Amino acid sequence: MIAELCEWLRNHGLPVELADSMFHTKHPNHDQLLDQLESKQRRELKKLADQLFHRSLDNCHGDCLLKDSSSAQFVADAVRKFDDVRYDLDSLIVMPNHVHVLVQFRSGYDLATISQSWMRYTARVINTQIGRTGVLWQPEPFDHIIRSAEQFEYLHRYVAENPKKAKLEMGQYLYWQRGQTL
pLDDT tens digit string along 88-102? Predict the structure, then answer.
């Protein structure tokens, strides 16, 4: 993943330091490096980085701590806890190494606050259960604002089809949508 991004950056005469900075440790000059790019290059870089990131997720890279059904269920329960109170949850899927949530926040609540709460709480409990410390989740969520019914349907399908894309079988992921019980 990093090698492919480095190659793209080299081919475009751009600083390869951005590759590692996009996925791992943010380079001290990350923002300045991005500012050097033309807006078209910035968009292309973001698009490629997003594609590589999703491909990495679909190939189940990382610790895959959510393969454990009790951890997956714990995350799903944490996300569903304030459904119909702080937000309206449409669907969620817990994959072995990531989670997708389609949600609309109610007045007074937002993604930054709620997602940080989900991540902090679940990381603390899961890390305790498996006897480790440290980072469990990426520092910030990968989010999209849904602006149309078509985009909503696309993302709904994307979430539902994610296990198939990752070549997972039933029982290797946890899927819930409104109207179902877990």
Answer: 999 999 999 899 999
CATH architecture observed for domain 65-177: 2-Layer Sandwich (3.30)
DSSP states of the chain as a string? -HHHHHHHHHHTT--THHHHHHHSSPPTTHHHHHHTS-HHHHHHHHHHHHHHHHHHHHTT-S--GGGSHHHHHHHHHHHHTTBTTTEEEEEEEE-SS-EEEEEEEPTT--HHHHHHHHHHHHHHHHHHHHT--S--S-SS-------SHHHHHHHHHHHHHHHHHTTPPTTSSEEEETT---
CB 166 within 8 A of CB 57: yes
pTM: 0.71
CA 150 – CA 97 distance, rounded (Å) = 27
Q: Give CA–CA dist 92/103, Å, rounded.
A: 9
| Amino acid present at 48 | L
Domain ranges, ordered by start, for the chain: 2-58, 65-177
> 105 — phi, psi (to 5°)?
-85, 140
**Closest among 111, 97, 104, 105 to 162, alpha carbons compared:** 97
**Per-residue pLDDT tens for 137-178?**
877 677 888 999 999 999 999 899 989 988 899 999 999 999
